[in-house]
Amino acid sequence: MAKRKRNVNGDPTAAVADAPSKKAKSTSSSTPKYPITIQVIAGSYDRVLHGVTATIDPKNKDKVEFADTFLFNAHASAIRCLALSPPSAPIPKQTQKIILASGSSDERINLYHLSAHAPSKISVPVTPSLNSKAIVENPQNRELGSLLHHSSTITALHFPNRSKLLSSAEDSTIAVTRTRDWSLLSTIKAPIPKPVGRPSGDTAPLGGAPSGVNDFAVHPSMKLMISVGKGEKCMRLWNLVTGKKAGVLNFERGILGEVGEGKHSSGEGRKVAWGATDVGEEFCVGFERGILVFGMDSKPKCKVVPEPRTKIHGLCYIQLGDEGDIHLLAVSTEDGRILFYSTRPADLVTSATAQGKEAPLASAKMFAQLGGKEAGLSGRIKDFSILSNGEGLTRDFIVATGGSDGALRIWKLAAAEVASHKGKAKQVGELLGTYETNNRVTCLKSFVMLPKMEGAEDDEIDDFEGFEDREEESSSDSD
After folding, report:
1. pLDDT tens track for 295-321
2. What is the rounded distance in angstroms from the CA atom of residue 341 to the CA atom of residue 367?
3. Closest of 286, 333, 273, 313 to residue 443, by C-alpha
């Protein structure tokens, strides 16, 4: 048996469109490439990790062909978060792989290897009465193991690159793990807040206080990180070079009132993300029913409050065009919508100032809306993923959404359709297909699959590369 060569970490290219890093401006724009195959991974309350491929082909009138790829009974309790690594470096005659990490309230981080290439064969079961769904069997989709670096519920996972995995939990720690040998490099400890001014309905134990990291976001330079935690009306800035705290940004009562965080609310940030506009970089902090956007000077720029008022579940930045670095903030809501806001200074909307009061914070302008009652969708969108197909304003966005109703929906959205905003926000997007998982989806990730490699080795049993040496030793001893 030939030994497998270890993959060397190169410069992988991610297919997702929600990364805020600036790209080089291109002089020519390419049209979207079809057919395209997308791998969608959904975690659920029912402890199930479900993988589905969605193939979009214009020859089939843009209808999506779904196929099951894997179904793992991953954890002992509800799955809370997922993360995908960039694909491995290309090696001749070897397939590329992607690492999937899943976090749960059972304190475990499970790791999986997924094939980055589109399937070459899709089969339908012979007995349609048992299961009529298409199935794709790939031996490369398998479990690697588990990490026990935390002592409480896992809240967020992120691969800043192929060689590192960052994870946060309700034990108020952020762990940095090396993917080469899955050893723990360092642990960043966030302070535990004092039990002062606790909101009603708190679920912390008697004599304790709500603690833990809700979410974190790594800057594209990989030198800074921001985080928000339970029971804290502030945001923390971390220096990833030294692994120490770099600053704290406290949320004032007036600012919290702008996004609906009143006297009896927790005031804690739930989501964070880095973004950029034509005037520079920015970051946003998501609360239960609103979002605050800050500049790099840590001063609030604007607010995002969905109308009508509703709960916010997810947020991310997407890049529309290469020229001008046009970014929009995408927000998923409780009433089944994904809203697209522009945070550029030229697009901000100011409100009238009441007599004797301070001027209210400007609001981000909503450009477009996907889903909602207008599209026949009213259930919550628990999580979503936006993928880019093409370049420039001619690109298409493929949006995968998942909710508590157990349905995975694939939408197609043209970048030019969102960018050409005039007046009132418009309904955009086209629903291509729906797949029923029969599980209550809590988190979702997706990526664009690479084309199938000709003559590639599947390398199915590469984890047992030491067996050959042992067999040679035993044969030499017998001689």
Report:
1. 999 999 999 999 989 999 999 999 887
2. 6
3. 313
Q: What whole-number distance in Å separates Cα of residue 263 and Cα of residue 39? A: 43
H-only helix segments in 269-330: none
What is the pairing mode between strands 383-389 and 48-56? unpaired
Helix, strand or coil for residue 470?
Answer: helix
Residue 201 has pLDDT above 90, yes or no: no
Question: Looking at 119-264, which runs of residues are DSSP E strands?
Answer: 142-147, 154-161, 164-169, 173-178, 183-189, 213-218, 224-229, 234-239, 244-250
d(CA 73, CA 476): 43
What is the spatial distance between Cα 211 and Cα 200, in angstroms, rounded to a whole number?
A: 15
**Structure-token match 């954890």, residue found:** 75
Average of per-residue pLDDT values in the chain: 83
Confidence class for position 28, pLDDT limits 50, 70, 90 = very low
Do the Cβ atoms of 434 and 409 come closer than 8 Å?
A: yes
Q: Give 357-408 pLDDT, tens digit per residue.
A: 777 899 999 999 999 988 888 889 999 999 998 887 788 899 999 998 999 9
Q: Tokens in use for 172?
A: 């108020």
Say which residue the tokens 């991953």 belong to: 74
Closest CA to 146 of 102, 180, 178: 102
346: which 2 tokens? 């030229």
Where does 4-147 show beta strands of DSSP type E? 36-44, 48-56, 64-73, 79-84, 97-104, 109-115, 142-147
- In which region does residue 18 sit, left (phi positive, over 0), alpha (psi from -120 to 50) or beta (all else)? alpha
Q: Measure the CA–CA gap between 385 and 32, rounded to whole angstroms.
A: 18
CA 251, 254, 260, 262 dihedral sign is: positive
Amino acid at 256: L
Phi-psi region for residue 463, left (φ > 0), alpha (ψ -120 to 50) or beta?
alpha
**Segment 111-133 mean pLDDT:** 71
Round to whole Å and give the CA distance between 171 and 11.
33
Residues in the chain: 479
Which residues 6+ apart lie within 8 Å of 403 measured at CB? 336, 379, 380, 381, 382, 441
